[in-house]
């Protein structure tokens, strides 16, 4: 189920899909490579032929709920700027923005029935890009060029920092824009890219479930700058001003409050929410059907080292995705997807990155459980990532 993305120019974090250097300029504030011809407005018309296609209507409806974008389904085929969805033999995006004509989003039969796949294509059509195209991708993933199908080698090119700057968002393993590492590989048998941070992130790449928090943050940053008459300053932990509720920040999973400066309260049965890491190991456990947030803090000059002693959370989606498992946020950008563990995981050691770790546990069944061990370590003594397969 290969797809082709025609004329997609690669951007560090967000792209406006360009055709030539002479028509573009770098907007550092928004981390966007932008043409003189403006991208879509906040009101986007769309059309498809034939009877109702539930996946398309649901995908655009969900994105409208998360952003300032309003999608308007038209009864007649578009002739000006907008999106035309077509059922085709393969997936493809044909950008016609510079012609003031509708862009074409082609979906194969399977994709047209999958809301997550449509969301993936919609995100790309609106300008987001897979994170393996970021100019800084080599810090996070290894691209195995010899494994890439010849038809898709250009889809793995990256843009250098001289052409675009990446601000405020880190490499996101949970972005809905990311390619499945096997989908564009030779014979679908070998990975085209894999995580450098740790191998468990590989289970997140290519998820087709939902937009990540930073996917929405980038779209809102690009399209929704004028949605709120008054700018709300002070959003913390990767939050951003909610364009549909201008007096509050939209928070990443696990955070709450007007400025996303609080840990979200969860089920009473979860027990203690806040833990202070010390030099010696401490342990806590959770089990059963419940939603829990746990926050671990270590003293200044130290980092939190976390061990997942043993955990099992029933796995539903094909990939490990947010809200289906145990998410561990230990990176500096709290808006980016944390490491999501699903299924059985044992003896996972997560190296210290800085002095805070947030754990979001979702148990779907009485048999779900997790046991954690943690301690504070000096910065120079942090261990590398390891786990038992």
Automatic annotation (TrEMBL):
Keywords: Disulfide bond, EGF-like domain, Hydrolase, Metal-binding, Metalloprotease, Protease, Signal, Zinc. It comes from the Eukaryota. Residues 24-225 form the Peptidase M12A domain. PROSITE patterns: ASTACIN (PS51864). Its cofactor is Zn(2+). Gene3D superfamilies: Collagenase (Catalytic Domain), Spermadhesin, CUB domain. The keyword Protease applies. Binds 1 zinc ion per subunit. GO terms for molecular function: metalloendopeptidase activity; zinc ion binding. Residues 1-20 form the signal peptide. SUPFAM superfamilies: Metalloproteases ('zincins'), catalytic domain, Spermadhesin, CUB domain. Its EC number is 3.4.24.-. One of its GO terms (biological process) is proteolysis. This is Metalloendopeptidase.
